[in-house]
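User: Fold this; tokens only.

Assistant: Input:
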Amino acid sequence: MNGYTRQNGVAVEEEDRKNGEHGLSEEQVQLLKEENEGMLKHYEDTLDQVRTAEKSMLEVSELQNTLVANLETQSSNIEQLVADSVNTTENIGSGNKELKRATERKSTARMVFFASCGLCAFLITWDLVF
């Protein structure tokens, strides 16, 4: 009947008929099905492991990209700090030179200060004596 046989109202596929043509017993067919199911489960488990490994690799890649971005930011910050320290060193050197020059020249404010101190000392002494 067109590759199908009727048994209790259910159509049995042509595959069962072919198995009989190849000389396989029902036990052998069942054993092959079990082996196929075992292999399928093994390959599905392996595929799950591969997917897990792929996911882990993607996460590592994302972390590496984040690390690279942070290292670039830190590198630019360090370069700025180095430039600032060089500028600070130059400014301190210039400031020290200015202070040295300021202490060497005669200042009118210094003279006024000393004159005021002398006058105050004289007045206090004058007040005590007379």
